[in-house]
């Protein structure tokens, strides 16, 4: 059995939380594809050529806590616009999705480019204000320097870059189900997502 759940959406929309919860609930493997771009970004910030970094990436080693830093997120959305970087990361993502069993992948172009054949597609959104509020709270909890205004500006800048690029821009697949998490608790968002996926199994 092969069953792929593709989850896309902008930064801090809740897609990662939903993806993890679905994978746990359904016993599926999970891949946070943003961490691939972040790993390339970290190496780019250290001076390496991003295309070379993407081609030699070890996807088994994505646990570096520095990957969550805001400067890495911004650099990730910059290097993610380079077509050769995206191409170098594609095979691993496709392979992960289509191995025997179930898989949940979350990112920006899963339903449109990586897994257009996914059995279930979700596009998770929330207002920029709601997303910035969540990200700001996470950063404060992690002891990072953060202001709400600065986080909102970062979220907007990343949205504009991710949706405006020529290759694999952030947009819902035609057959994706939209979930707006702005007014939802985590539990409500997860159960809405589960209902969609269960209806396809
Ligand atoms: O999801 P996350 O915030 O970790 O992603 C970091 C950046 O990586 C995004 O802003 C986006 O530019 C890029 N990305 C992408 N395609 C994906 C996943 C992430 O372009 N499938």
UniProtKB/TrEMBL annotation:
Endpoints of the signal sequence: none
Cellular component, GO annotation: cytoplasm
Entries under InterPro entries matching the protein: Cytidylate_kin, Cytidylate_kinase_dom, P-loop_NTPase
Top EC class of this enzyme: transferase
Residues bound to ATP: 9-17
Compartment(s) where it occurs, according to its Swiss-Prot or TrEMBL record: Cytoplasm
Ranges of residues in domain Cytidylate kinase: 5-198
Listed GO MF terms: ATP binding; CMP kinase activity; dCMP kinase activity
Pfam families to which the protein is assigned, alphabetical: Cytidylate_kin
Major location (coarse): cytoplasm
Catalytic reactions on record: dCMP + ATP = dCDP + ADP; CMP + ATP = CDP + ADP
Entry keyword set: ATP-binding, Cytoplasm, Kinase, Nucleotide-binding, Transferase
EC number: 2.7.4.25
Keyword Transferase: yes
One annotated GO biological process: pyrimidine nucleotide metabolic process
UniProt xrefs under HAMAP family: Cytidyl_kinase_type1
Sequence similarity: Belongs to the cytidylate kinase family. Type 1 subfamily.
Listed name of the protein: Cytidylate kinase
Species of the source: Rubellimicrobium roseum
């Amino acid at each position: 059995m092969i069953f792929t759940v593709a989850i896309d959406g902008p930064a801090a929309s809740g897609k990662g939380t939903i993806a993890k919860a679905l994978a746990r609930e359904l016993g599926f493997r999970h891949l946070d594809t943003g961490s691939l771009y972040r790993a390339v970004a970290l190496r780019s910030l250290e001076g390496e050529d991003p295309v070379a970094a993407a081609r030699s990436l070890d996807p088994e080693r994505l646990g570096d806590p520095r990957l969550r830093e805001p400067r890495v997120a911004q650099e990730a959305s910059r290097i993610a616009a380079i077509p050769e970087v995206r191409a170098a990361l594609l095979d691993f993502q496709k392979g992960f999705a289509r191995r025997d069993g179930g898989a949940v992948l979350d990112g920006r172009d899963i339903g449109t480019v990586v897994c257009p054949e996914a059995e279930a597609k979700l596009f998770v959104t929330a207002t920029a204000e709601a997303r910035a509020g969540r990200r700001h709270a996470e950063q404060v909890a992690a002891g990072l320097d953060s202001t709400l205004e600065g986080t909102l500006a970062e979220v907007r800048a990343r949205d504009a870059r991710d949706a405006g690029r020529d290759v694999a821009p952030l947009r819902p697949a035609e057959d994706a189900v939209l979930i707006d998490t702005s007014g939802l608790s985590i539990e409500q968002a997860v159960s809405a997502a589960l209902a969609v996926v269960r209806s396809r199994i």
